[in-house]
User: Fold Aminopeptidase N from Sulfurimonas autotrophica.
Amino acid sequence: MSKAQTKYLKDYKKPAYAIKTVDLTFELFEEETIVTNSMQITKADTNEKDLKLDAVSLELLEVSLNGLKLQESRYIIEEENLTIINVPTEFEIKIKNKIYPQNNTELEGLYKSGDIFCTQNEPEGFRSITPYLDRPDIMSVFTTTVVADKKKYPILLSNGNKIKCHESFDERHGVTWHDPHPKPSYLFALVAGDLGSISDEFVTMSGNKIVLNIYCDLGNENKCHHAMRSLKEAMKWDEKKYGREYDLEIYNIVAVDSFNMGAMENKGLNIFNSAYVLADMDTATDANFMGIESVIAHEYFHNWTGNRITCRDWFQLTLKEGLTVFRDQCFSADMNSAEVQRIEDVKALRERQFVEDASPTRHPIQPESYISMNNFYTATVYEKGAEVIRMVHTFLGEKKYAKATDLYFETFDGQAVTTDDFLWAMSKGGDINLEAFKTWYHQSGTPRLKVEESFANGTYKLSLTQIIPDTLEDRKQKPYYYPLKMGLLDEEGKEVLVKTLIVSKEHETFVFENFETKPVLSINRDFSAPIIIEQKKSEYDFLMQYDTNSFTQYEATQNFALQTINKLISSDEIDKAFVQAYGYLLDLDVDLSYKALLLELPSVSAIMQLQEKIDFDVIYTAQDKLLKIIAQKFKNKLLDIYKKNHFPASMSLDAEYIAKRAIKNRVLKILFALKSDEVAQLAQKQYEESLTMTDRIVALDVLENLHVNYAEVALQDFYNKYKDETLVMNKYFAILASSSRYDVLERVEKLQRDKVYDEKVPNLVRSLVGSFARNHKYFHAKDGSGYKFLADKIIAIDKINPQMASGLCGAFKVCNKMNNHNQNLMKKELSRVISTQGLSKNSFEIIDKILK
Ligand code: PHE
Ligand code: ZN
Assistant:
């Protein structure tokens, strides 16, 4: 990496120009695309002389100012800019340039996914399409004409409303789109292809009829119905909960197979990774259906939180992402089980964000600097960002929060704003001072809270001490300000007090009077603050039985299990009380999808976070041991639960059947620990009789790890059935790459040569290489083979798609927590990668931080 330039928030300057309108014409050809870009520009700062536009690898054909072609002496082309020298106060610039979408493997800007032309411009892709002031605080009205071969590309789409069709005599045609809402360039989109589609309509609360279309590869139309249902539910929900209505005549969604992320909220033309659109019972799991519902809603919600009110600069990313994730989480909670949703969200936060927040790449939800903005679409900006909004919601309560968000929309509609602007609206509308709360935006690391209890003479005292991590550069950080929900239970498990404490000081004590016996504490209910509770506690089994808050009941189970595993690691001794309490859970009469979560034992990632120095062998051994004890002790009960919920098999997506599949498959995964023929046969039968992908995939996974012969037959069957369905093949690759069988690496290497695999398709890379990188057992192999494999892959993929490569670098984040042996092996490989000629700034930034 030659010149890694760091950008800083403190260097932000208001734009010196405004672009009022943009007129774009795209002439799409097989070998090249000609872009004509005509902009009406005004100077905002009259001291400015030159106009410096963002432009990467520009192949300029022509540039004119106010209709006059410019001589070469009037402009300068550099690696990342086109500068027009000496421009007037108000003028029109017209630029014609050439690009090559069919060679674009980075999947940023205009590129081809299979036979479909599509775009991805967030955060800075637009500059590789045409020269522009490519920053989110430049908002402009776009009119776009797309011209292409009529037969190959019958569907031509862009943002806004369709205003004109151009027919011509040869084989080409064109369509013009106009988007009346001023928007930043990152929300620009274009699609051209021979696409199938389904259509529907939605009538908004003020009676506007909106046309809804979902486009996909021909033949996949019948897999779009769940996405369409989800879209309509999301539109209804945003009207009901936030009073926000859709604002164009048409809403288009396009599913493409090659996409770096989940989906993109381009104005009126969302472009989706097909994994978040396409689903039917034969090919998608229940989790896939839920994922689609939430991502469809997420992108729709961006129309107000992101598009109409956007970010002033990319340091403000959490303004739109944290808020929109919070919105989609609440939507999913309303559509499904709220208690399950909350636990799943917290689980995801801990598995990804907590790990990130403890690593050398940790950063505040509002970072101060970056080299590649692409590296900051992180669990911290998104998921921790959502937790921060959730705390604001908790402080304000439903009613004031509604008032405050209304104020936010009224005040900033049509503007590019900052997180401070958002907090201003929250404190004004919510009538609350949030000054002390701002630390959440500027500090990194997961805060801890040490909890100590005492009881004497009827008085219960709760002493809280904040343990605040230093910054990466060892700077001290300030105490946090947050809501801490708690409950106190009496000895019969009755709730005697429920309260939301406000934690604000480094150390404080809360006193509660008039108890006959020492109450039992249930703390951080609903996970009201994204912190780690540190507490020596012996009452987990009590809370497992009696806690009235579903989140802390789950939490007690997890904590007790972790404590038990920790004991198993150091002393080989099993805590009988835990086994007994677990037995109690098996008999609980609660919602079955919630119960499936309660019965899940802590993940490797959860156990690893408790270790000073990570030793995966030790973790796996202890985890296996506990699972085995549970499975042996409760074998009959587990089998009962299995049978009771396995029959009758159903393809229904009703909550009841989703829950039955969840509990049954949880139980099967526990029984797996017995490693018996009986369980193998159960899994084999489940595979063969499965009506749903949910059942099939769990059975396949169990077989792969349990019984070589059965697995071989099932895997072959699966491959033959689904080899033409790339979304299903992702699952196949993921199972094999996550396997515990000894020859995983060998098989992964072989699978790279499978004809279904394609290194240019991010989903496939993530499911094969990415899954292997998360297979701790073999990625961290003592001989270094896992590290070497991944380093080689990063080097190769970096040349194809830097964003995908830097994503894979993340597996090395745990480096400084590994034992010396592994640490040295990791560093050796990382040094090799970072000294590769021409390494992207994306990969450079991540590896540089890990090696520092
Ligand atoms: N803005 C998208 C979202 O969160 C994510 C995204 C970022 C997609 C960058 C592509 C590129 O909905
Ligand atoms: Zn988003």
